[in-house]
Amino acid sequence: MKVKILNIKNFIPFIVIGCILWISYFYPRFLTLALGEKSPWISYLYIYGMGGVAFLLSLVWIFTRKKDSLRQKEEFLWLIALILGFLFIFFVHGLWIYISIEYPLYNP
Amino acid sequence: MNFGIEFSNISLIIIVVTIIAYFLMVTFFGAYFSKFSSNIHDFFFSGQRFAWWLPFISMMATGIGAYSYLKYSEQGLKTGMNSTMVYMNEWFIVPLFFFAWLPIMYWTKTRSIPQYFEKRFNTATRYLTIVILLAYIFYYIGYNLFTIGLAFQGIFGLPPFLTLPAITLILGFYVSLGGQTAVIFTDLVQGVLLYLAGCLAFGYGLYVLGGFSEFFHYLPLEHRLPFASFNQDPYFNSVGIFWGDALAGSIAFLFLNQGFLMRFLSVRSVNEARLAGMANIMITLPLSAIVVGSVGWLGKAILTKQEALNTALTPYGFLEIENSYHTFVNVVGYVVQSNPIVLGIILAALLAALMSTIDTLINAATAIFIYDIYKPLIKTNSSDKHYLKVAKFSTFGMTLLGLLLATWFFFQKGTLMSIHYRGIMVIVPSIVTTLLLGILWKRFNSISACSALVVGVSLTFMTLRFPEWIYPLRNFFYGSQTGDPFLFRALFGMIVSGLTGVVVCLFTKPADSDKIKGYTLDSIDDAIFSFKGRKPNFKRGKKITFLKIVLDNSLKKGEIALSNKNVKRLKAEEQDIIYVSDNRWYLGGLRSGHFTLANKHPKKDSVLLMAKDTLEKSYLLKDKTVFIKKII
């Protein structure tokens, strides 16, 4: 008899949750060590890092359950639009921080 | 008369005239658009016939409420351009919104969030949800009215207990007249006014400071950045805002805000709703963030420049902000003092448009009352006319109830942002988690949903008394180590709700998959099937324009007939759902409707046949040409 509990699929949710917890714990600490708490880039990398995980996971979740819908041209175009939108706001925020740092500051 | 800020007579006249004109306009809108609300479906969802851009523009005004100007100006003054971050962090949860929640709500013809909970789970879950949602909406209504009172106080020096009842009466009057259509069209005007006021104020501020480069030069680095401090400031830090706002708050904002949902459901198809959503997130929200926060940034730059020069800016004098709640009014009064006409226009636009969010919320609360309480519990089988009448009266009642709640806010302490978050982060997490589990996990059953809601709300509420329960979580996620952990309250609520729901679900019988067809991500195709009543047709056809309507009363109500050639161009089949709209694009679908393709007619290609009843129901005009598009 096939032992169902050993099916790798049963463990996927636990592995995913474990990975999210691991990232949530270590990622901010790693960023702090690597950049320092005051770095102008640290919040950006944190938000897009954690947000990117949430974004990717939801896309994977949706399209593993709705594989057929990607065959519809309109659904596929919406998926591309979502990814491009993510990259666009990622770029705009990055540029914003870069300009903020580079532009001369008033120094009393 | 003793005003909050100094006015010239011209400013005062402009303010008074604009406000009177505004109230006349909204009352006219209410009266005019009431003719497009012949039943409650029209009253709340505008017949689901609008083009995407109409609700999109109206969302401009909905996304900016009275509280936005005051709250974000204060935050902008204190922490700078990162006041924009809560407006610009929705993208992470958009996939779930576009591909799961929106199609489910649209195709299952679900009208309210509690209704979804009943169909997905059971009646008990529905009523638990109603309590939580009404708490959420009324918290917003009360908070909006509170900030409207603050704005009048800041500008005129008038005590809120005098101004608020008068404003409440006017609001209740016009929303109750025209419903959602009046709200959407009024919001179009309000959106323009709000942006105009914000842009004028920002433009004048830059002029006072000596241009954009001077403005940016005098902003400290941390005030220039788009994100708050990493985890230092306990009241506004990136780690806390990510978990509290970008996840829980954004889901509540997009998924659970009945007002926004009604905007999305008022459009003619799911793809148009997605377009409206995308434009809202990519254009409206960032612009709104700048419009509402920029006056606070200006205030900071002016204060820094004053300090640097060690003197007042000539000829403007010293800028002083004694009460940060009045940052917007104080800074605008300062930068536009030399031009009484513009000052009048900005303040009048602000005052007149302050109601833009609250009208949506009142309409949303009424929708929940009618669909979830009155119709199923009080009077089940009555005429549409009766429900419409009750909807109008209850709109008025909801407004008055909001007024009572507004008084509570005047006893709260802290920044406007923190007062806002403190309530929202108690109310939303359990319902957000239950909703997500319901959409994404078909096994998730009604017992586990009820448990998740009750345990989640109770434990989250108890953290107001025992905030130390949140500390381990805050430490694990590396949040701020000091102060009130309110930014992590939502995450705490989501985790306890989620754990309770999952554990209970694993030890109970899975949900009946036949009963919940269409209400989960896996079964959206079933929802589309039941929407149409037969297999959907996804073939991409062409849009056909300039068709003439010819009446044919042999057709059934809701049916149309087209020529053979047009049917082929649409790639349509009999019984497909066809959208027919007046050709004039600027109407945005006000005169339009969804119809079933009955059969082919032998007449000219430019002719579309429909019965007189069908024509009247969709507000189409016989002498105006129409365009058609196949939906499914």
Question: Please, could you describe this protein's structure?
Answer:
The complex is a heterodimer of chains A (108) and B (632). In chain A, 76% of the residues lie in helices and 0% in strands. Chain A is mainly alpha-helical and 108 residues long. Chain B is of the alpha/beta class and 632 residues long. Chain B has two domains: 416 residues, Sodium/glucose cotransporter (Up-down Bundle); 94 residues, Barwin-like endoglucanases, CATH 2.40.40. In chain B, 63% of the residues lie in helices and 6% in strands. Chain B has a six-stranded mixed β-barrel with strand order 1-5-2-4-3-6. Chain B starts with 8 loop residues before the first helix and ends with a strand. The chains are: A mainly alpha (108), B alpha/beta (632). Chains A and B meet through helix 1, helix 2 and helix 3 of A and helix 5, helix 11 and helix 13 of B.
Task: Please tell me the overall pLDDT of chain B.
Answer: 83
| Binned strand content of chain A | under 5%
Number of strand segments of chain A: 0
Query: What name goes with the CATH superfamily of the largest domain in chain B?
Result: Sodium/glucose cotransporter
> How many domains comprise the coordinates of chain B?
2
Model regions low in confidence, pLDDT < 50 over at least 5 residues of chain A: none
Strand content of chain B: 5-15%
Q: Quickly count the helices of chain A.
A: 3
Oligomer: heterodimer
Q: What's the Cα radius of gyration of chain B?
A: 26 Å
Q: If you consult CATH, what is the topology of the largest domain in chain B?
A: Sodium/glucose cotransporter
Gap between N and C termini of chain A: 78 Å
Largest sheet of chain B: 6 strands, mixed, barrel
Give the % helix of chain A: over 70%
Largest interface: A-B, 49 and 50 residues
Give the overall shape of chain B, derived from the CA principal axes.
Answer: globular
Tell me the radius of gyration of chain A. Answer: 20 Å
Shape of chain A: flat
Number of helices of chain B: 25
Low-confidence sequence ranges of chain B: none
**Main beta-sheet strand count, sense and barrel state of chain A:** none
